[in-house]
Every structure is written in C-alpha cells, then in structure tokens.
Amino acid sequence: PLLIELGLRWASGEGSIAEEHFFAFYLRNKLGARYHHRTGGNAGPRLLLAGLPNEHHEIGLLLFALAAHEKGYRITPLGPNMPLSELPPVARKKDCRAIVLSGAIEPTKSVLGKDLPELVAAIDVPVFIGGLSSVYACDAISRAGAEALGRDIDQGLARIGENL
User: Fold this and answer.
1) What CA–CA distance (Å, rounded) separates 35 from 19?
2) Which of 108, 116, 160, 164 is the most buried (most CB within 10 A)?
3) Of residues 16 and 46, which shows the higher confidence score?
4) Are 153 and 163 in contact (CB under 8 A)?
C-alpha cells in the first residue's frame, strides 16, 4: 500500500523523487534485514530472481524473495537491472528450476523482442515475469515464451508451483 501511495503521489505531482528515494531506501534496508535473518534451510526448488534490464526498483523483488522463502523455495537473488544474457550461466551453475524476473516499468522493445526470447531459448527452465512490467507487456512476454505472473505475489507463487 505504501508503494502504491508513493506512486500516486509522484504521478499527481504531490510527491517528489527525493520522497520516493527516501522510502525506497528505508524499505530496502528493512526488507534486506528480514531477508538476511530468515530462518530455516529450505529444500524446495531454487529460483533465480532478478530485475529486468533498465529496472531500478527492487522492493517488489525483495517482497517476492521473502514470500518465496516462506513457501519453501531456495532463492538466488541478483538484484535490479540485470542483463538477461547473464542469467543462463548462473541458473545452470546454481541448479535453478526457474528464473523469475521483476519490473515496475514497461520493458523496452529490445528486451521484449530480442533479449527475453534469447533468454528463453538459452535455458531449459521456465522464465516468469512479475510486477507491473508483466501487466504492461503480458502478450509480448507470452510471445517470447515466458509467463507473465501479474502483480499478486501469492498468485504468482502458486502459478510457479504449478509449473515446477
């Protein structure tokens, strides 16, 4: 809810970039601490998590990582703004069962038309995209061979579970 409110404030001109950065920094630290102190050695499938290229927001990715860990998944997080071409070797080395990408902005035509299809072709595990990016580009994500998860983390995790 806070992130939505900040986005609305920014869009209406009531908020500022400084306000957004302040709260993003605060939330990133709080969520990072929760992630760092999570308990339990999960034995579920490993997910490789990364932000889409040109995506600098990582709060959604951190929230997803915490929720996935709670569901028993093992997590390999790479953070925001990852070149998709670098993901296949990491996924293979870490024995990941899926790649989950996150974004809050509309992916570029190059990402959707070139980088994402190349990623899907280069790896033998499913590729999922969540966050607003998956809503903006649902059809293009499907055409690339990946699956759009939408914005609901619990529903996204359920769909991932159905595919693994």
Assistant:
1) 24
2) 116
3) 46
4) no
Residues 6+ apart with CB under 8 A from 122: 85, 88
Long-range contact pairs involving 157-163 (C-beta distance under 8 Å, separation at least 24): 157/67, 157/68, 157/71, 157/73, 159/128, 160/47, 160/98, 160/100, 160/126, 160/128, 161/71, 163/98, 163/126, 163/128
Model confidence at 7: pLDDT above 70: yes
CA pair distance 41, 88, nearest whole angstrom? 25
Q: What's the pLDDT at 94?
A: 96
Q: pLDDT of 71-94, one tens digit each? A: 999 999 998 999 999 999 999 999
Longest distance between any two alpha carbons in the chain, whole Å: 46
> What DSSP string runs through 27-92?
HHHHHHHHHHT--S---S-EEEEEEPTT----HHHHHHHHHHHHTT-EEEE--SS--GGGHHHHHH
Report d(CA 106, CA 158) in Å as an integer: 24
Q: What is the mean pLDDT of residues 109-122?
A: 97
Mean pLDDT for the stretch of residues 10-38: 76
pTM: 0.86
